[in-house]
Amino acid sequence: NNQLHLRRNQSVLATPDENPRILITGGLGQLGTGLAKILREKYGKDNVIMSDILKPSKEVVEAGPYIFADILDFKCLQEMVVTYRIDWLIHFSALLSAVGEQNVPLAIRVNIEGLHNVMELAKQYRLRIFVPSTIGAFGPESPRNPTPNLTIQRPKTIYGVSKVHGELLGEYYHHKFGLDFRCLRFPGVISSDTNPGGGTTDYAVQIFHDALKTRQFQCYLKPDTRLPMMYITDALRSLCEFMALPPEALKQRTYNVTAMSFTPEEIVRSVQRHVPDLKVTYAPDSRQQIADSWPQVFDDSEARAEWNWKPQYDIDGMVDIMVDALRPKYQ
Ligand code: AKB
């Protein structure tokens, strides 16, 4: 009954000819700024509201609407959804894998309580909601090479546990209340203009800064640790394509997406094509154990088959563009 009621309301409220108004939480993280840029080009500057608890730069404020939003404050979120007449919510606020292990209570509050707030809000106001998941939602018992869309998920980090919870709760709300929940499981994302923070895959971004700045890089993972990765342009495009699909085009609500898989040794070789005198040492720390429990190769064949997902960047293509983008900064 609930579902029928919701569906009926949705058809009354739907405004398919108008651009959606979109709220991005955790907008100042690695993915938010780039995503806002693409969505603003597509749907209009004022239709994309960025939010975070951080003080924004001048560029962020000039690029379009930016407001303070604490995802732990339900009333504040509710007020924003009503005031800006939000249709889609993109929920990026989260503590990543390595930093989550340093502060488990905070990770539980942000990643789980915060998620409960946005899910409830999306249900109440019939929002289309996107919550990213991750390769970190798998664990040592999952098949690791390749890791299929549907398999055992017993993650060993609080980040992974919170992401599995998000996947399951979103799918439950979809099934029970007709909520338009959408979720992509991302691999490590590599970007030049915004940095990741507190993840296990961050070494694959740091290497570019250190290689160009000092010609030296110390890697916190062993040379043969294989992990799935993706260049940010591919990651953001997968998200935009996925969000634009009509609900009836989705056979499921959670998909693996990826572009490549490499080890530290392999990315070092690729970077050395540009920085031949790069020297690398290896000093594995607690992040090694996390990486050893994650997928090595991610199987995204269902996203490819069901909504034509196709990445454009392989390892060398990604390295070329990263070096081009960052070289001027260190010259
Ligand atoms: C992390 O390393 O925690 C993230 C992820 C793969 O989800 N980059």
TrEMBL record:
It comes from the Eukaryota. One of its GO terms (molecular function) is L-threonine 3-dehydrogenase activity. One of its GO terms (biological process) is L-threonine catabolic process. Pfam families: Epimerase. Coiled coil: none annotated. PANTHER family: L-THREONINE 3-DEHYDROGENASE, L-THREONINE 3-DEHYDROGENASE, MITOCHONDRIAL. This is Uncharacterized protein. It comes from Daphnia magna. The lineage of its organism: Eukaryota, Metazoa, Ecdysozoa, Arthropoda, Crustacea.
